[in-house]
Amino acid sequence: MDIFEAVRALLIFAFSFVVALIFTPFVLHGLRKYGLNKKNIRGENHAPVFYHFHKGKSETPTMGGVIIWGTVIFLALLFLLADVIFNGFASYFNFVNRAETYIPLGAFLFAAVVGLIDDFLGIRGIGPKGGGLTMKGKILLYTGVALLTALWFYFKLGWSTLFVPFIGVVDLSFWYIPFFVFVIVASAFSANEADGLDGLAGGILFFTFGALAVVSFVMHRYDLAVMNAAILGSLLAFLWFNIYPARFFMGDTGSMSLGITLGVVAMLTNTALFLPFFGFILVVESLSVIVQMVYKKFFKKKLFLSTPIHHHFEGLGWPESLVTMRFWFISAVSTIFGLVLFFLARFA
After folding, report:
1. Domain extents for the chain?
2. For the stretch 334-348, what's the b/e string if a residue is b when 16 or more beta carbons lie within 10 angstroms of its beta carbon?
3. Residues 250, 201: contact at Cβ < 8 Å?
4. What is the DSSP code string of 224-261?
5. Coil vs helix vs strand at 169
6. Predicted structure pTM score
7. For 122, which of 31, 132, 199, 213 could close a Cys bridge (C-beta 3.0–4.6 Å)?
8. pLDDT tens per residue across span 10-39
C-alpha cells in the first residue's frame, strides 16, 4: 500500500513540475505584455539599504506565484474530473479528498485570489501608499481567513487538541481557536516577509512543504501528501526561473497562498509545534521585523541595517545569491532536524 502511494506522490510531483514548466512561458509572456511589473520599489528615504540593492528590479514582472497555485489547482480539477468521468485507474491520481484536502485547497485558492488582487492594486499604484494593501491590512485578511478556518475546525470537525513533542496530546479547549489563528497568521506573515530576494522564499518553502509531505505520508494522509507533492513540483519549476537573476517575482499571490496553506497543513497534521524547525528561516525573518519595530520604538534607532534580516546581510556586503544560498542551507539543516524530532516524538 505505502509503495503505491509513494509512487503516486512521485508521479504527481513530476506531473506538477512538467505542467508548471509548460505554463511558465505563457505566464511570463502575459506578465510582460500587460506590464505587470513590480514598479513600486520602496523609496530611498524609507528603506535605503533595500532601495540601493533592488532599485534595478522595478521592471521585473511580478505575480509569478500564479504558476505555483495555478498548476496545483489545475491538476486537482483535472484528476478529479477524470475520476468522475472514467473512474478506475484515474482515481489513482485524484488527490481531492473531503477529509484531507478540501480545506487546504480551498484556503490555497482563496488566498491566491486575494493576493492576486493585492498584487494588481500594487502594480496600478492603488492603495493607502500606492502599493496595494498595507501590512496591517494583510494581517487583518490573514486573521479573517484563519478565524473562519479555526471555527470550522473547532465547531464542525470537533478539533481542539495539540500534539506536544515528547509529552503527548493536550486538549486546548476553546484556546485552540486563538492558537490556530496565530499559526496561520504567523506562517502567512513569515512567508510574505521572506519573499524579498531572488529564489529565497521559494527555496525555503520547498524545504518546508517537503517536510510536511513526509509528515503527511507517515501519518497515512496520502491525499494530503500528494497535494504537498504537487505544490513541491510547481515550486521547483517556479524556482527554475526565479533563482538569481529572477525572471519574475512570486508576488503576494504566491507568498500569501503558500503561507496560509502551510499553516493549514500544519494544523491538519497536528504538527504546528514542529513548524519553527521546518520553517526556521521563516521564523527568523518575521522575528527580525518585529524586533526591529520594537527596538526603534523604545531606542529611536535601528538594531539591524534593514529588515527582513536578509536585507541586513545585503547591507553588510553579502551578494544577494550568497544570502539566498546560505539561508537555503540553514533551512535544509533545520528541516532535517525538525523531521528527526518528529520521528523521535512519534515513535519513541
Report:
1. 2-275
2. bbeebbebbeebeee
3. yes
4. HHHHHHHHHHHHHHHHHHHSSSPSS---HHHHHHHHHH
5. strand
6. 0.94
7. 132
8. 999 999 999 999 999 999 999 988 888 865
